[in-house]
Amino acid sequence: MTQDLARIRAFVQVYDAGGFSAAARQFGRSKALLSKYVTDLEDYLGVRLMNRTTRKLSLTEAGEAYYREVVQLLQQLDDLDATITNQTSEARGLLRVSAPRNFGETSLTPALFAFLQTHPEVTLDLRLEDRFVDLVDEGVDVALRISAMPDSSLIARKIADTKIVICGSPELIKRVGLPQSGEALRNMPCIVDVNLQGQANWRFVSEDQATAVHVSGPVRVNSPVAAMQAALHGLGFAALPAYLAEKEIADGRLVVVLADRMPAGPSLQAVYPHRRHLAGKVRALIDHLVIWFDTHPVQ
Question: How far is it, in rounded angstroms, from Cα 141 to Cα 89?
Fold first, then answer.
């Protein structure tokens, strides 16, 4: 089996490098050995895989079909090896994490600092900003995002559920009344946060039926903190992340309405690039966050 894999790898390496000499230099193997491996593989399969000339190397039709399949098989084997290795690798080194500012400042930092206490060989570079960073271009190891599924070129793991609440100040409710349904908000002042999924189209559920209600009001913002401040000033009802408004709700400065009509909120996800070898520090952090938010729910 080992010999068979060596022959297959030699075939792939020679083609990827563009020739036997280039592959010998790139992978530190002798040209003669690579040639022998490829010839042995062709003899075993009973078919020519490569057309060789002094200046050019190309794949035969059979070689192209064989190359497509074995490249995937070798990748799967490499990934399996990496998974087993990384399961026992220790978390260490610089860990770059990106997260939304408001969530990072409230709910995330206690989880991250607890992680550092148990992993003293990790140093943290935490970047709190309200934009989708390019993980590869900006060298970010993992991003925490509260959103729908990310770009397909990234890998995501669900960390926890989040919740959106509709809030209004006691003064507002005294002035305009308590909404009895999502539909009632069409005729009541509301704060529109354009960063919220759906923006001015707020979603509600009733008897398993989902509806979208278009709301409007005196203020339009692009920040949940600004939306909460507007709600605290009695300017309208606001759809807010529950973790952000938790203290104001507990203090009675904001009142939650239509709690039984709200759908499930977006999930908190750990997003990282599609890399063959996931660093031990990233794996350890993600595992830690799953456990942390299981015992410290995002309210």
Answer: 16
Our count of domains for the chain comes to 3
The alpha-helical segments, DSSP class H, found in the chain are: 2-17, 20-27, 31-45, 61-88, 101-103, 109-118, 170-176, 224-232, 242-250, 280-295
Question: What's 177's domain CATH number?
Answer: 3.40.190.10
Q: Based on the fold, state whether residues 146 and 168 are members of the same structural domain.
A: no
Q: Domain holding 81: CATH number?
A: 1.10.10.10
Single pTM value for the model: 0.61
Task: Give 148-195 pLDDT, tens digit per residue.
Answer: 655 556 788 889 888 999 999 999 999 999 999 999 999 999 999 998
Query: In the numeric block, which tokens belong to residue 112?
Result: 């991250």
C-beta separation of 181 from 283 below 8 A: no
Cα 241 to the chain's mean position, in Å?
19
